[in-house]
Amino acid sequence: MPGVTNDGPLTDAMPLADLMPWSVAPLRLGRSWPVAPDAASLKARWDAFVAAPRERREALLQPSRARTLHSAAAQLPRQRAGTEPLARAEGPCPEPVRILHGPFDEQWLIPDQRLIDAARPELWRVADDHQLFLVEQGYVPDAGGPALLASAVLPEGRSPAGRPGRIRPLYRRPGATEPNVAPGLLPHLSALYGHEVGPEPLLAWILAAATRDAKECRVPLPVDPEVWARGVEIGRRVLWLHRRGQGADRPKLPGGRRPYVRAPLPPRPTELLYDREEEALLIGDGRISPVPAAAWDFHVSGVRVLEQWFIRRTAPAEQGTLTAVRPATWPQQWTSELLELITVLALLAELEPLRRELRADLGTLLGPYELRRAGVLPVPAPARRPATVLDQPEEGPGGQFAFL
User: Fold this and answer.
1) Fewest Cβ atoms nearer than 10 Å: which of 119, 143, 147, 402?
2) 108-139: per-residue pLDDT in tens?
3) Do the strands 133-136 and 280-283 form a parallel or antiparallel pair, or are they unpaired?
4) Which helix (H) or strand (E) covers residue 357, if one does?
5) Are 256 and 266 contacting, i.e. CB atoms less than 8 angstroms apart?
């Protein structure tokens, strides 16, 4: 299965938790309607919510133990939203932001802590244009799939199956000023390999070489600088694909292998099928080809990525709920995003043989004994906690200043 990473010399590898010590649990949304594949639907849902009378508003919210119409909640860092109880909320929708809602699935979220059971404000404080996140994927025995995904936007962190892992920001402070790396590790690797090793090359190596078992993610650290350089090069390509390229430089398959819409997609598709002989994705009467089998077979935590992406846009919503406020027909933008997703998965699958070769050629590994002698281990307790950030005024419940 493409993307298999649950193999390799786990016993000789370092726990990821000792290399990137600060981690945060996944977000817990508590309700589905503040997330959508398009921002316009979120604004329409918010407008319907604030226009509803109080007795109807409670049902629309879908209250939980953590959030009701009367819950007090501060603004999320770097976001603008009201802080009065939702029973009195009015005005326009807080501007939706991009999040990674699931593997390779960027969607939109209303960044209002009153709507989110556990928003993890410590992540929002460090989410900026310089930040990168590693998201541990849930372990499913013999299911395969990548152990980690990377994202430049804030990840929700939930795994499609299995026990969800942790979210690990690359930097502990805004502006990429303090790497979330075990103190002393980067200087030690720099001396070992004979050139400066920064946080982003380390992240690239982790993406190329990390494995996972039922307990944790582990990362082998090679002694050989040539093996390290090879892995970093592979990992940079993996990172670039996880981010869907950058700017105008988007992932593309060679000319004859690029997927195209061969028959128009129906306005309200409900079924997704794959024809292996024709290498075609069948969406109702619509048809996209060529679609490599490796893209169709790409799984994360035992779940087929393309199927999950499609279901999250087409699954029936209960009438009368805010989740039912959605595009009446399939938007053209979703087709473009689907073509790009097919491309990304196909290109990632092409990298898997290189990653397997890398793991087979690791040679001698840098182990806990050497890192203890170098003073890198044990990791000091403060490195496992979020950094104190005092340069961002944040509004607390009811408009009060929030002290951090």
Assistant:
1) 402
2) 999 999 999 999 999 999 999 999 999 999 88
3) unpaired
4) helix 332-360
5) no
